Automatic annotation (TrEMBL):
<feature type="region of interest" description="Disordered">
    <location>
        <begin position="131"/>
        <end position="151"/>
    </location>
</feature>
<dbReference type="GO" id="GO:0008168">
    <property type="term" value="F:methyltransferase activity"/>
</dbReference>
<feature type="domain" description="SAM-dependent MTase RsmB/NOP-type">
    <location>
        <begin position="102"/>
        <end position="380"/>
    </location>
</feature>
<dbReference type="InterPro" id="IPR023267">
    <property type="entry name" value="RCMT"/>
</dbReference>
<dbReference type="GO" id="GO:0032259">
    <property type="term" value="P:methylation"/>
</dbReference>
<dbReference type="Pfam" id="PF01189">
    <property type="entry name" value="Methyltr_RsmB-F"/>
</dbReference>
<feature type="binding site">
    <location>
        <position position="222"/>
    </location>
    <ligand>
        <name>S-adenosyl-L-methionine</name>
    </ligand>
</feature>
<dbReference type="InterPro" id="IPR049560">
    <property type="entry name" value="MeTrfase_RsmB-F_NOP2_cat"/>
</dbReference>
<keyword id="KW-0694">RNA-binding</keyword>
<feature type="active site" description="Nucleophile">
    <location>
        <position position="322"/>
    </location>
</feature>
<comment type="similarity">
    <text>Belongs to the class I-like SAM-binding methyltransferase superfamily. RsmB/NOP family.</text>
</comment>
<feature type="binding site">
    <location>
        <position position="269"/>
    </location>
    <ligand>
        <name>S-adenosyl-L-methionine</name>
    </ligand>
</feature>
<dbReference type="InterPro" id="IPR001678">
    <property type="entry name" value="MeTrfase_RsmB-F_NOP2_dom"/>
</dbReference>
<protein>
    <submittedName>
        <fullName>RsmB/NOP family class I SAM-dependent RNA methyltransferase</fullName>
    </submittedName>
</protein>
<keyword id="KW-0949">S-adenosyl-L-methionine</keyword>
<keyword id="KW-0489">Methyltransferase</keyword>
<dbReference type="InterPro" id="IPR029063">
    <property type="entry name" value="SAM-dependent_MTases_sf"/>
</dbReference>
Amino acid sequence: MTPAARAQAAIEILDEVIASARSDGPPADAIVTAYFKTRRYAGSKDRRAVRELVFQAVRHSAEVPATGRAALLPIARELFDGSPHGPASAASEEPEAKPGIVPAWLLPELSPLAEVTSALVERAPLDLRAKPPREPLLPALPDAEPTPHSPWGLRLPPDTRISDHPAYLEGRVEVQDEGSQLIALACAPIAGQRLVDLCAGAGGKSLALAAAAPGAQIIACDISLPRLRQLGPRAERAGATIATRLLDPPREADGLADLAGSADVVLVDAPCSGSGTWRRNPEGRWRLTPERLERLLGTQRRVLDLAAPLVKPGGRLVYAVCSLLAREGAGQSAEFLSRHSSFEAEDTGIAAGRCDGVGRLLTPAHDGTDGFFMARFRVRP
Ligand SMILES: C[S@@+](CC[C@H](N)C(=O)[O-])C[C@H]1O[C@@H](n2cnc3c(N)ncnc32)[C@H](O)[C@@H]1O
């Protein structure tokens, strides 16, 4: 494919990505893959180049662009030269997507600590969580550096392929952002404890808890069977034992009744806007709406209220969201404390990040991690 033909392909894909963001359809990655399934003439270099153009255009624009053409123009105007198989020439006054980092409606929602810089949407490195100790792995991963905050972390350049590396296949490393590792560390797990990972998803944090405290009893819960199902093979690869529990909304409390007052730690890694992970998913900015944010705030409230009765006297509840929005982090935590007077906030035990209300906020610009809010609550003695 010529450079102009690649630009035309990127425009067609971006048109689909825009429509999909508006209708809550498949993500950009899936659209790129599907596009090339029916275009066998495109070689691997073409596919990589087109994908790069698509994601560069998505990163460029905070708001949903009007068209794929408008999205691509500001980053590849030179390819709009009218050559065969390429986009039609662009007039100098043709409207193009405006550069932006945060959608305008979300700016007032950001925590005061969330810096609006390009760090929010730049390509993120590949962070790994190593089975401790991490140092013996360094010779096998020559591009890796130890991460500064997590004792388990190794950092590789963006887009490093790890899934066929022996260290990955042998279960010695898992892909996990350093911020996520710090959330598991904030749980301070100890062998012999009962740990409930209430929103376990595919079990990224459950696996970190199991690695940190091999003798702990870990119960990974979620309402999504497809996500929870991924945990089995991952746990096997890591040599970890983790019980899973599928909850059935709106009767999650029934499925948790036998755990009441028994958990040393309950981790609530709640569904959220994902505004802390825009570096990995820049298209997330096009998909969040005020209505969706309100729904997420309601779900966070609900899972926190499900978690509170599970904690035993003297036990802890750790609340986390991969978000930079004040209402999802510090605001949600303050509301939790006002509803549950038996809990008090305590230090998270994590040095990274900065104090934000009763918790801590990690940001890409300040900490080099995805954006995370975390808070730790203890049942009053
Ligand atoms: C941020 S994700 C969890 C990510 C996961 N902890 C990890 O480290 O990979 C939030 C999860 O909460 C789950 N969830 C949503 N509502 C829930 C509920 N009422 N009870 C339990 N889990 C819920 C979602 O299915 C989703 O998997």
